[in-house]
């Protein structure tokens, strides 16, 4: 690539029709950017609610080679809508995007925190996201999965029969835009955060509004919506998802804990895939691994990068100091706990726009990490928001 890399930081509203057309052309020419998070409407909607939003426009010579939607939190640069942004990077044609390190340098970033960077990077560590691909549709995919994981899927078929026997006929609906149902889902999610001691990403307010606006502002095949399952008229599971083109991204699931033995979350996922495939969706994104059920569904993966590119300073020193304490207390778990602190800290920075709230959250993150070292893990809690 010829020419010095230059950057101009603009408000999203400054992008004109030519810029948006180029953005769409870049998406069409780069299959790695198939996720709905790269769609220009995600940037347009998120920029209205996320404080300090902007787009970095990268140029070489007279050519615009890429766009990076982002937000600033103090001296930190993050992908736009973090921590609600599950994929991010520079929107560019394949092979033309600047690397993560080049982005940090040309944007003069004190810190650039990314959790799922798509593109070239040497900093940080690789992570995998898990996906289902079904080029021939749901029936062929399910037949293959049932043959590979026969016991698992037979068990889910029995669970469906049990649910119908206990409550009545099962019904699933996609594309729901009901604000009250979304509010119910958010309430359940916040309750889970309180039980598990995780930072409440919805407490700041703008993240809730993001989900509402994505649901209300759907256009051109892009948007957010709810899928829900009822049994005998009773709501048993609901999930908020984001979609664009043929790509369907599962996002926030919830189910009725009392019915966990009937696997309502899994049944909703299966029916969502079946019905969405009939609408033309061919890729279903389950995000990062970790939950055991995903191995029974997913047949491919995408490698992304988690990285913290930062100059030396107070935050780096604090993180390393905490890591040193953890290493002394529990050498075997020190690295995992350090990563946990950084992830939680990044989420807090992203959510909280007030400096005092960020400091409080950061201290809480350190305390939570140290508690993991000094205390025994609590008894398992039934997660009311993950599929069973």
Automatic annotation (TrEMBL):
The keyword tRNA processing does not apply. InterPro entries: Acyl_CoA_acyltransferase (IPR016181), BioF2-like_GNAT_dom (IPR038740). Keywords: Transferase. The keyword Transmembrane does not apply. It comes from the Bacteria. One of its GO terms (molecular function) is transferase activity. Residues 153-295 form the BioF2-like acetyltransferase domain. This is CelD/BcsL family acetyltransferase involved in cellulose biosynthesis.
């Amino acid at each position: 690539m010829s020419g010095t890399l230059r950057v101009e930081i603009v408000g999203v509203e400054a992008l004109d029709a030519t810029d948006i057309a180029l953005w769409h052309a870049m998406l069409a020419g780069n299959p790695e950017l198939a996720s709905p998070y790269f769609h220009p409407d995600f940037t347009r909607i998120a920029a209205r609610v996320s404080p300090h939003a902007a787009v970095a426009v990268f140029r070489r010579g007279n050519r615009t080679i890429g766009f990076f939607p982002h937000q600033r939190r103090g001296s930190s640069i993050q992908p736009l809508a973090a921590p609600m942004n599950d994929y991010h990077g520079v929107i560019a044609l394949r092979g033309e995007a600047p690397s993560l390190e080049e982005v940090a340098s040309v944007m003069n970033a004190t810190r650039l925190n990314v959790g799922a960077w798509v593109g070239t990077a040497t900093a940080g560590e690789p992570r995998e996201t898990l996906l289902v691909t079904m080029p021939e549709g749901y029936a062929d995919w399910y037949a293959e999965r049932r043959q590979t994981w026969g016991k698992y899927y037979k068990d889910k078929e029995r669970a469906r029969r049990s649910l119908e026997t206990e409550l009545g006929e099962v019904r699933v609906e996609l594309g729901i835009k009901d604000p009250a149902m979304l509010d119910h889902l958010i309430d359940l999610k916040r309750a889970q955060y309180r039980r598990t001691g995780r930072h409440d990403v919805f407490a700041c307010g703008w993240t809730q509004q993001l989900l509402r606006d994505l649901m209300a502002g759907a256009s051109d095949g892009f948007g957010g919506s709810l899928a829900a399952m009822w049994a005998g008229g009773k709501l048993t599971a609901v999930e908020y998802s984001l979609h664009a083109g043929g790509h369907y991204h599962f996002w926030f699931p919830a189910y009725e804990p009392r019915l966990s033995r009937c696997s309502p979350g899994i049944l909703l996922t299966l029916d969502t895939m079946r019905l969405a495939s009939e609408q033309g969706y061919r890729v279903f994104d389950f995000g990062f691994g970790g939950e055991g059920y995903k191995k029974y569904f997913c047949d491919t993966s995408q490698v992304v990068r988690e990285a913290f590119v930062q100059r030396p300073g107070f935050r780096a020193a604090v993180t390393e100091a905490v890591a040193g304490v953890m290493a002394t207390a529990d050498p075997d778990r020190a690295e995992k706990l350090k990563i946990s602190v950084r992830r939680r800290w990044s989420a807090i920075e992203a959510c909280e726009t007030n400096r005092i709230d960020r400091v409080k959250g950061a201290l809480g993150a350190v305390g939570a990490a140290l508690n993991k070292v000094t205390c025994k893990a609590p008894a398992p809690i039934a997660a009311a928001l993950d599929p069973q």
